[in-house]
Amino acid sequence: MTEVNEKQNLLMDSDKYFKALLEIIGSVPSRKRTISIETDERDKNFRDVIMHLYEWHAMLERWYREGMDGDVPSMPAPGYKWSTIKLLNKKTWENYQDITLNQALKKLKLSHDRVMDLIKSHSNEEIMTKKYYKWTKTSNLYSYFAANTSKHYVWAINKCEAIAEYIHHEMNKEKVF
Questions:
Q1: Each residue of 103-159: pLDDT tens digit?
Q2: Which run of H or E residues covers position 94?
Q3: 38-70 burial by CB neighbour count: b if 16+ within 10 A, else e?
Q4: What angle do CA 18, 8, 150 make, to 5 degrees?
């Protein structure tokens, strides 16, 4: 039996959490999936969470493409610094308020597949070795990939569980009356 390496674990965890996220959304009847919860937080519905993930996939793909082309990617995004990440996330949220959940899910599934293909295209050594690529500076590809896949999916699962719980609770209140 061969030993599972970090790359394989990253791929397995990313797929497992991605499927779990889709299952949570799927647990809500389709006609109720667009309901927004009452919260002061940025993400109020499934679409908000999904588009947040999609946009971070897109940023990762840009960093990767620019970095592999020998450029220094603007991280997290042009005009933003890590210290202004809340502003970037708010801008992302604003940009996607007119998209439907079905469109969002299609976009996310495609971007997830593209990122998984990027991970698959590298050896475990390339993914795990710090400073292997100049653009990752003192880090490794793993930290970028994991932050935008498996770890981000865990965050999204928690958000979507809360949204689903709220919707199920509201549906149960409707049945009482």
A1: 999 999 999 999 999 999 999 999 999 999 999 999 999 999 999 999 999 999 999
A2: helix 85-95
A3: eeeeebbbbbbbbbbbbbbbbbbebbbeebeee
A4: 30
